[in-house]
Amino acid sequence: MNNEDNNTLGNKEFFLNALAKFCDKCGTAYNPEDINIVQNTGVSAIIHFSCHTCKSRNLVTYVFPMGMSSRSPLNVDLSFEELKKFASQDKVSLEDILEVYAQLKKNSKVSV
């Protein structure tokens, strides 16, 4: 689904009512501007909550099996823009990991 289609007021209000009405950290009521829907497949959704008071950020996965939902909040330090950037990246290959390891091993200031 297109991200602009996901971030409609109706979708945001649905997730506000279904997942979290208040910030877990400070108790401030969320409003639709605090929510961005990162992905919504119709089967599951990834929602980014950002408290306008304490700036706490949470990433929530919402699953729609048989009309039921589960909420597993994950406190993150990424903004919505950063999440979109990293979500669109290719996966990290084993070769990439080995290359970073080899470079770090060459650096005498890094212990591996």
Task: Give an account of the 3D structure.
Helix content is 31%, strand content 21%. The protein has 112 residues and is α+β, with helices and mostly antiparallel strands. The protein has one domain. 16% of the residues are buried. The radius of gyration is 18 Å and the shape is elongated. The protein has helices at residues 3-6, 9-18, 80-87, 94-106, and strands spanning 35-40, 44-50, 57-63, 74-76.
Q: What's the total count of β strands?
A: 4
Approximate helicity band: 25-40%
Shape: elongated
Nearest-integer average pLDDT: 83
What spatial order of strands do you see in the largest sheet? 1-2-3-4
Q: Supply the number of helical segments.
A: 4
H and E string:
HHEEEEHH
Overview in brief:
This protein is 31% helix and 21% strand.
Please render the helix and strand layout as text:
Blueprint: H1 3-6, H2 9-18, E1 35-40, E2 44-50, E3 57-63, E4 74-76, H3 80-87, H4 94-106
Antiparallel strand pairs: 1-2, 2-3, 3-4
Please supply descriptive tags for the structure shown above.
112 residues; elongated
